[in-house]
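Changelog entry

Holo records now carry the ligand SMILES as an explicit input line rather than a separate metadata file. Below, a converted record for pyridoxal-5'-phosphate, shown in the new format.
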Amino acid sequence: MTPFELEDRYSARNYEPLPVMLTRGSRAYLFDVDGRRYIDMMSAYSAASHGHGHPRILGALEAQARRLAVPSRAYYNDLLGPFLAQLCRRVGLDAALPMNTGTEAVETAIKAARRWGYRVKGIPRDQAEIVVADGNFHGRTTTIVGFSSEPEYKDGFGPFAPGFRSVPFGDLLAMERAITPKTAAILIEPIQGEGGIIIPPAGYLAGLRKLCDAHDVLLILDEVQSGLGRTGDWFAFQHDRIMPDGIILGKALGGGVLPVSAFVARAEVMDVFTPGSHGSTFGGNPLAAAVGLEALKVIEDEGLVERSRVLGAHMLERLRAIRSPVLKAVRGRGLWAGAEIDPDYASARDICHRLLARGVLSKDTHGTVVRLAPPLVIARADLNIALDLFEETLDEVARRVAKEGATTRQPAVA
Ligand SMILES: *Cc1c(COP(=O)(O)O)cnc(C)c1O
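Structure line, unchanged by the conversion:
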């Protein structure tokens, strides 16, 4: 059997991959088994923000793997302290709890918020509530999918954990109404990534900060995808000049090679954890710490935040200049854009298929949105090539529909 057949035969069907068999990566390039080169405009949902195979990260990974990889948190290790110190300094908060995947760090934040609610705020036992936003994506555990608004993520997986309320994203009034004396925290993405790169109205985060201060509620931001340079700031919250009480990081924290995540918070929040109250066999291992530390240093040394800001502005300007009936809207910040495709012309997945044929890898989200989020190290020339090819793809689709009519509905073309 070919690797395609093997994957189809032996892998659970929880993904529906585009038909390309990747075998190698370098910076913003991915290569298939036939040696064909693609521009990566997806960067593994920000996990590959540093680009594929970054030499400094590979160097840290290899050296640390030879020295010591996984001794467990039953002992101190000489890299965890330096890594978390650097992480806390960078975020501007007091202490961190290291985990592996994003979803585990979200679970960690939920535990912290609830315990803080009982022990600090004084919410009656087992009654704490956390308010989230419609359209959220925080991971895939049963607790987390329980408060997702995506039926596909939840169908058949209940019963779900109570203690969550969901309100429309970007709506401060709805948020205020949802807060009660039992509310421990607001848990929210500053920009909804899987939701379709949805940017809330200006002042939303600042408004949430005020609500949290007024009602003694924690503001916890899930920056697993938006953090570490993606939006042109180190963290998306900086755009609104606020400080959260806690932040969840992951994806790019692993430098494109390992799952490394963390919950970072104010001391008052993190202090609710006592020995034995939470843990992870792999979380905080020296291999992950070495990679995380190097991942942070590379962002700093290579000016990747500034790069994201400058190239991101260029990307958005180019996308917004496109005049195509296929493209309904463009949203984005930094090297992170969502292109809303008119479903009368094509599905976002169809656009991704066509981009693939042209040598550009992207990923649809929510049926109608094409995500454009290259590694932050992408060369300006490659970004321009990818954007040229995106424009060509839209033209191709518009021409096809003009000639043959839409496959589904008749398009509203002049
Ligand atoms: C990807 C993502 C997660 C989950 O991270 P995993 O590493 O896949 O568990 C959580 N929150 C946000 C905002 C994400 O984008």
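Spot-checked after migration. The CA atoms of residues 39 and 382 lie 7 Å apart. Confidence is low (pLDDT under 50) at residues 410-414.
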